[in-house]
Input
Amino acid sequence: MRIASWNVNSIKSRLDIVTNWLSSGACDVLLIQETKSQDVNFPVDAFTSIGWNVAIHGQKSYNGVAIASHFPIHDIITGLPGDDTDEQARYIEARIEQVHLASIYLPNGNPAPGPKFDYKLGWMERLNQRATALLATEQPIVLGGDFNVIPDDRDCYDPLGWEGDALTRPETRKAFRRLAYSGYCDALRARHPDDVIYTYWDYQAGAWQRDNGVRIDHLMLSPEAADRLVEVGVDKAPRGLEKPSDHTPIWCELDI
DNA sequence: ATGCCCCCGTCCCGGGGA
Output
């Protein structure tokens, strides 16, 4: 089973690029972020007409997550547990075959410090609690998405320039490391420990052409999923298309 | 130090992104 994650920066603006990528056989399951679409306006038919199922959790204008799959989608949960007052659509969870998956759009958190950074850290605390609870299933788990975390200086083209940013701050990296301490494996780093691999390039200042990228999209695997990890990679091709998302897909192949 | 670019919406500017 090949599982990918992609922040598409509006599903309506990226619909052809995304459905073409799915039709090319690029993956079996796609975790989608930043759909920027209310559920009533989500282009469900574009997925079902090419044989894909889709589970969606959106809101107006901002955020929004989804899971698309060749296989039936079961046990859908929308919204990250732990705060009933949180109305931002940043988390959807489901089971596909025996694999538990979450599509995650973690808050940006800038400017930091400030209330938006506090929201990010609170969200990460809740994510860590949910991640730990899921381990009790003892099933393969894939937590994938746009984490808005640059885990290490080598994951950034300009670490000094990003110093103090919410994506690189020590508190952010510390909260992200707790996933590893709980038992989750950063799939890309497990297979490519020393390579410079980015998943996001800003639209501005020729960042793509200059390869001024950062690695902020991650696939975090439970031990049962990591044991089945065959390969992991980043498909840079969609970032080079006309009218692209600023993110490009990360994928992993599990022996399931 | 700031903006570059892109997306959204009771929309032609302003908020948000990272």
